[in-house]
């Protein structure tokens, strides 16, 4: 009993510190010819890429190359720790079969005005598959040369050894009571050797599958036999945000109400101007939580028949003046949540508005805006405001590393939706 009190006291002391981000976004594209990179469960574009170890799960990989010359693309897996740092292991220690696999499936675009080659694969393949659970980077590169890296995508490999029970509650602190969402959960590690659970077990919580705002590096608040409880009021507290903005690009001929105008050949579409929504009353509507779907109205298979266009975004700031010492960014899966020149909105001094153009494929998109301090990227302001009632999806990831392991095992996952899993808000 005395030991339990010491552990609990130490845990509470450490947990009073703010949770640290899990790490920067592992998804990135390094070749400007590559567009619309997708990695998701078979037939389910909205879900995270999660593969259950030694199961029949299938993961779809898709991407388009604007260079219409067929190339030799390969992929491999890179095992990382829970914080997306590569582990010091040989590929033969976590890959069964070949360590590289050529992507043999491709189709030239058809019907579409824009010419491109669509590449696809279904993972894992029998002669190249991960053998350990954990965080994996799927690395795609040219000509069998890993130095010619084209893009990376995150893949979670799960070996279920722990059960997780989670809930969303309203924070107690006055400054976040109406604007934030608090995730509390319990992890049952029965059957595992957790003599020092605070060091062996790591947890990470994602909001809407976003690694850029992930929270982790938090010790359990209480340890009761095989149960690890994470309930400290200052940990895993997320800004609620607002339902995401939407843009329907499923047809370039029949323009949706969010599109203001288009060029004659539909190679350029101009989105109606956006503005701040933080002062508007919260209203619920179904959205994609920052994701997008590759889909069309007029084609059979949107992956190689969907067209591309330059999509012009506009944002009108308050009083038509630029934000001082801050940059405005487009955020969402359409920019991989990256804060770079591609996602940055540029102020047009002649029109007194922010503008940016993205080259996007036909589909249905959700997106938002973030105001970021020029000198500190961690200081962000959500331009749509934050509301406790907002619908969000949360994913709790539980990692385990014994004293003999060289890498973190992913042993448990829990998913929770703030509306369907909250009394009084179910639809």
Task: Summarize the model shown.
This protein has 427 residues and is mainly beta. Helices cover 5% and strands 43% of the residues. Strands 21, 22, 23, 24, 25, 26, 27, 28, 29 and 30 form a ten-stranded mixed sheet that branches. Strands 2, 4, 6, 8, 12 and 13 form a six-stranded mixed sheet that branches. Strands 1-17-16-31-32 form a five-stranded antiparallel sheet.
Considering the chains and any ligands shown, give keywords for the structure:
single chain; 427 residues; mainly beta; Immunoglobulin-like; six-stranded mixed sheet; 3 helices; 32 strands; disordered N terminus
Q: What does it look like?
A:
With 427 residues, the chain is mainly β. The protein folds into three domains: 28-158, Immunoglobulin-like (Sandwich), CATH 2.60.40; 160-240 and 389-417, Immunoglobulin-like (Sandwich), CATH 2.60.40; 245-382, no CATH class. Helix content is 5%, strand content 43%. The chain is built from three helices and 32 strands. The strands form six sheets. Strands 21, 22, 23, 24, 25, 26, 27, 28, 29 and 30 form a ten-stranded mixed β-sheet that branches. Strands 2, 4, 6, 8, 12 and 13 form a six-stranded mixed β-sheet that branches. Strand 9 and strand 10 (117-123) form a beta hairpin. It is globular, with a radius of gyration of 23 Å. It starts with a helix and ends in a 10-residue tail after the last strand. Mean pLDDT is 92; it is low at 1-23.
């Amino acid at each position: 009993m005395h030991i339990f009190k010491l552990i609990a006291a130490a845990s509470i002391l450490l947990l009073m510190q703010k949770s640290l981000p899990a790490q920067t976004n592992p998804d990135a594209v390094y070749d400007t010819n590559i567009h619309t990179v997708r990695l998701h469960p078979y037939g389910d574009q909205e879900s995270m890429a999660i593969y259950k170890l030694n199961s029949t799960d299938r993961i779809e990989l898709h991407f388009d190359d604007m260079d219409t010359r067929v190339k030799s693309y390969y992929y491999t897996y890179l095992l990382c720790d829970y914080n997306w740092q590569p582990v010091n292991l040989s590929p033969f220690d976590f890959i069964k079969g070949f360590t590289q696999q050529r992507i043999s499936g491709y189709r030239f675009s058809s019907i579409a005005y824009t010419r491109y080659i669509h590449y696809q694969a279904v993972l894992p393949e029998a002669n190249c598959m991960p053998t350990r659970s954990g965080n994996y980077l799927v690395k795609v590169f040219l000509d069998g040369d890993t130095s010619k890296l084209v893009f990376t995508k995150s893949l979670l490999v799960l070996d279920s050894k722990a059960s997780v029970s989670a809930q969303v509650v309203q924070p107690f602190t006055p400054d976040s009571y109406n604007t934030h969402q608090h995730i509390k959960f319990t992890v049952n590690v029965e059957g595992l050797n957790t003599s020092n659970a605070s060091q062996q077990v790591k947890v990470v919580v994602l909001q809407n599958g976003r690694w850029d705002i992930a929270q982790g590096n938090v010790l359990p608040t209480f340890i009761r036999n095989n149960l690890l409880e994470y309930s400290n009021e200052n940990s895993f507290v997320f800004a609620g945000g607002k339902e995401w903005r939407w843009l329907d690009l499923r047809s370039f001929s029949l323009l949706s109400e969010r599109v203001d105008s288009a060029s004659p050949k539909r190679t350029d579409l101009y989105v109606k101007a956006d503005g701040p929504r933080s002062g508007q009353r919260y209203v619920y509507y179904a959205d994609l939580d920052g994701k997008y779907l590759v889909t069309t109205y007029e084609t059979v298979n949107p992956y190689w028949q969907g067209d591309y266009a330059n999509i012009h975004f506009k944002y009108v700031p308050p009083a038509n003046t630029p934000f001082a010492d801050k940059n405005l960014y487009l955020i969402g899966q359409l920019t991989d949540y990256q804060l770079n020149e591609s996602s940055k909105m540029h102020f047009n001094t002649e029109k007194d508005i922010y503008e940016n153009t993205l080259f996007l494929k036909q589909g249905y998109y959700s997106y938002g805006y973030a105001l970021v301090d020029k000198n500190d990227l961690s200081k962000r302001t959500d331009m749509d405001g934050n509301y406790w009632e907002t619908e969000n999806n949360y994913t709790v990831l539980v990692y385990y590393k014994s004293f003999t392991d060289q890498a973190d095992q992913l042993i448990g996952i829990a998913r929770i939706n703030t509306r369907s899993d909250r009394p009084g808000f179910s639809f």
